[in-house]
């Protein structure tokens, strides 16, 4: 194991997490990426991407008790978490619709691209009226988590849906200040930035993975939810990680173990058309969210985020892991945020 205590990634994470840094580094198997160094002591895009993923993973566990319990169980068995991918949902209007926030995945392409990520696959999700895209890191595709970024297409719904969506998302703010954009531009140009720049940019970039609009109107939320559980989820949770995923040796055996522990895991394992990618997930944990109801504010319990496990076999065409996804698998996994 690399000495992550001397890594630039540890310094980055410690700037945000303080004393909790060591526990997170011991939990996640991101040692190589967090220890990656650029010339002259600068922070490489690999290292920054690893620190960002670690922060987002930590945030998800704070919101998802079932995921935290799974991770604690793995650690008790002496296993570290092989973070496979994180997923987030976005919304795209044919024109405008998301205020100051760029539409759909564009809001994240401007972050992921400079960090060395590129679209490795596009996955139509027609039943959900969405499109998913897998972003893989070019320098370390197996060692860094992927991002599965989905877009919900407003134009595939009716006019009432579009009007409600405009009211909910139309005032979205842009979380990236000019100084943060400058750091991302440096990553894109040079592949590295100074430690001082990285420390300043990390919380600002992580904040992009959150909700950027205000409390939704209860009637608008009900309309969106009636047409699309995914639209309802984005209305309350925004662009936060929808789920984080551990890569495990045998997803079916792990699912049985979790089921025996009484945890709310999916009844079936989703298997890709190639047979090489197998996934299942826990049901989303509920969260309480505020809504506007006329002049009043009300609080309702809604589905939050969840935790997923995945097994990947080798791809005979490349000799490496099959890092692909599957539209059918994704559609089945997305159902975990529907209300019980």
Note down, in words, how this protein is organized.
This protein is of the alpha+beta class. Helix content is 39%, strand content 22%. The chain has helices at residues 8-17, 21-27, 31-34, 45-63, 65-76, 106-112, 159-169, 178-190, 195-206, 218-227, 229-237, 251-260, 327-334; strands at residues 43-44, 83-92, 117-125, 130-137, 146-153, 192-193, 243-247, 270-271, 277-281, 286-293, 296-303, 306-312. The longest helix is centred in the N-terminal third of the chain and has 19 residues, at 45-63.
How many β-strand stretches?
12
Strand residues, percent: 15-25%
Low-confidence stretches: 1-5
User: What characterizes the major β-sheet?
Assistant: 8 strands, mixed
How are strands sequenced across the largest beta sheet?
Answer: 3-4-5-2-7-12-9-8
| Structural class by SSE content | alpha+beta
- Roughly how many Å is the radius of gyration? 20 Å
Quick overview of this protein structure:
With 340 residues, the protein is an alpha+beta fold.
Structural features:
alpha+beta, disordered N terminus, 39% helix
């Amino acid at each position: 194991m690399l000495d992550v205590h001397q890594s630039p990634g540890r310094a980055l994470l410690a700037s945000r997490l303080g004393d909790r840094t060591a526990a997170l580094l011991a939990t996640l198997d991101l040692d190589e990426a967090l220890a990656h160094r650029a010339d002259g002591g600068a922070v490489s895009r690999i290292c920054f991407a690893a620190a960002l993923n670690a922060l987002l993973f930590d945030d998800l566990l704070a919101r998802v008790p079932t995921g935290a319990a799974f991770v604690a169980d793995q650690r008790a068995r002496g296993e570290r978490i092989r973070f496979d991918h994180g997923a987030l949902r976005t919304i795209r209007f044919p024109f405008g619709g998301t205020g100051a926030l760029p539409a759909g995945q564009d809001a994240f392409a401007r972050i992921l691209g400079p960090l060395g990520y590129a679209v490795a696959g596009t996955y139509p999700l027609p039943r959900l009226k969405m499109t998913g895209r897998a972003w893989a890191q070019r320098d370390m595709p197996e060692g860094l988590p992927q991002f599965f970024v989905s877009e919900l297409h407003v134009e595939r719904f009716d006019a009432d849906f579009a009007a409600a969506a405009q009211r909910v998302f139309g005032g979205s703010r842009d979380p990236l200040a000019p100084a943060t954009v400058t750091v991302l531009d440096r990553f894109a140009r040079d592949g590295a930035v100074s430690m001082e720049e990285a420390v300043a940019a990390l919380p600002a970039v992580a904040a992009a993975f959150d909700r950027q609009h205000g409390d939704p109107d209860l009637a608008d939320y009900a309309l969106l939810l009636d047409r699309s559980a995914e639209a309802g989820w984005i209305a309350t949770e925004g662009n936060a990680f929808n789920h984080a995923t551990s890569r495990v040796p045998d997803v079916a055996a792990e699912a049985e173990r979790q089921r025996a522990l009484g945890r709310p895991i999916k009844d079936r394992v989703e298997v890709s058309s190639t047979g090489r990618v197998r996934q299942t997930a826990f049901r989303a944990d509920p969260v309480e969210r505020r809504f506007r109801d006329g002049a009043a504010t009300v609080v309702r319990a809604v589905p939050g985020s969840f935790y997923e496990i995945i097994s990947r076999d080798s791809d005979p065409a490349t000799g490496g892991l099959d890092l692909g996804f599957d539209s059918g698998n994704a559609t089945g996994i997305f159902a975990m945020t529907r209300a019980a």
